[in-house]
Amino acid sequence: MSTHVVTLTTAGRLLVAATALQCVSCASHDVCSNSYTLSTDSLGLAYEVLVWPPRGQDDSEASFRVAASTSMSTNVRVRFPPATDNCLIMFGSVRLYCGQTIDFTLLSTVVATFTSTTSDLSGTLVEASMPVAVYTSNARVMIGPSNVSGSTSEQLFPMSAWGRHFIVAQVPDNYQTGYSIRVSCGRADNVTVDVDGVPHQLTSQRPLTVDFPDNRPAYISVVGDSGTTVQVVQFVRGATVATDSGAPAALVLPAVERFSNVYNWSSLVIGDVEFVTVVVRQADISGLRLNGQAINVSDSAWLIVSNSSDWVAAAVQLSASSYSLEHTGQRQFGAYIYGYIPARCAFAYPAGASLPLQVSSTCYLHFKSELL
Prior knowledge:
By secondary structure, this protein is an all-beta fold. The protein contains one helix and 28 strands.
């Protein structure tokens, strides 16, 4: 889409108008950059960008997009993370820098895009007067010690849908490579998270990165203050040896608190290899049904999630075009989709999540008065 940007220096704000619009609930991606699409009822007012850093070369890029979802104009504030060396962020033709805060107005269903080839955009805070959608992307990125580059694209959960407990699952068909996770805490400071039994300290706008080259499932939890929540994104590394089929991918993890007892989804890619990875309490395995049938997974395929009480994870290769995964006893469990087109690209996204509905009226009035 084409976007016209007008800078109003006296008010310190940017007014964004567009000649082409993009629908919030049906954002398009390339064939291997599928992501879970949130309903407009689940969009929020506050987000934190979490993406993989670019390599600092012209062929690698990180970006995020903010999309308005209502017929009203939406006031948006973007607060970039603290200054770093060689930081340059492009907003259309406008040059921006780390440490800056900008205000702008989005018209109905307009998308504002921020890109950088040099800087980690993670930690950027996005606050809006009305619900918005926020998407993150990487282009030509290498994740971990890889020799394969690719693209990723994910829709972020709003802060109101974050949680305190997360389960990261193994990546099917990518056992020689593993994954990395990034954790962020929004506006909070001095937050302690336990990652696979090791405590880490988080501060505002400074995401944590932890590598799992052995590809084992792991448990992540917030320690202490019961009101603090975080977000977690799993970044699948690209292949490093000939036996690997993987390429970079990103998965926004729903918290355990957001698990459901039923998931429905359709396969979006033709000619791919696709899996659903199920994370469930060991006592609940027998109640799982995939398209009405018991899941055909051997006992040895269920891997214990380290440092959890009784969670396990297993991947099931898929072969149909549409799926229903449920628990007959209505027990909550997690389901993550991962797939790839051999020698081309990979994708990952949650099969679903139980997200809260958003209420925006009082927040809108507060935000509007703050900007005036």
